Amino acid sequence: MISKIKFGVVVFPGSNCDHDAYHVAKHVMGHEAEFLWHKETDLRNSDVIVLPGGFSYGDYLRTGAIARFSPIMNEVVNFADNGGVVIGICNGFQILCEAGLLPGVLLRNRSLLFSCKRVHLRVEHINSRFTGECTTGDVLRIPIAHGEGNYFAEADVLQSIEDNQQVLFRYCDGSGNITDEANPNGSINNIAGIMNKNGNVMGMMPHPERACEPELGSTDGRKVFESIIHNVVLQTA
Amino acid sequence: MYQSTITIKLRTSILDVQGKAVELGIHTLGMKEVQHIRIGKSIEMTIDVSSEDEAKRITEESCKKLLANPVMEDFSYTIQKV
Fold this sequence. Notes:
By secondary structure, chain A is an alpha/beta fold.
């Protein structure tokens, strides 16, 4: 059984949460991590690919629209198509939607404001590679920091996402109630994070990597990383 | 050589929150008659081809593959010989 897995953190021009993800993977979780420059075409045997938050290509045209043409994205798509685990956080989620690896799109926040605060997320189910270390209904306290996090999908796509249990996290109040007041950006069905149909690609607007140490006010984000690590370790055992 | 002028707007089924905010501003200025503001992008590009059909094909392909996201946006364009 392997003792350490390797996180490959993709760095786009404009990524700004790459170091946070690297730090958590390597120094908090104690696993291996490596930066992968967006012009590279080799994932260097990474077990998990992280598309971090930030403003890739200055958010020009649409958030994530240009980043998906970076050379490394061909490899990320191949990796995902072959069952590799990919997680996109914030701008990474937007890139995954633009690249067609996840359904739907992230629109401007309904307030039109950039929103930077701690929110509560309800874990919808634990039958996933990303939530296995949670319990169903867990309420996680994790920060958001985005201007375009308003998740939207057409009615038929939304229905299929819900039917297939692809929604992993929803914005909720402190007690786990899904309310409009607890929805920070207008996301349809309070969706904060989803996975693909195959369950190996996940995107979420909140930043679990910013909630992994007590100094930052919450360690709930660790559950996401612990789930991924536990799953990958089991799969490669 | 042709020039295309492309207009990209949020699909009508999607609430344009930016348009709504601007509408509120216009109403505050006293122009209450103004309604249904939708905000979009205008993109111009010249295309070095000899036929209008080819210019249209390239314009549509660039819109479908990059300039617009069909999940949330519609596009329209005009083409002019330059």
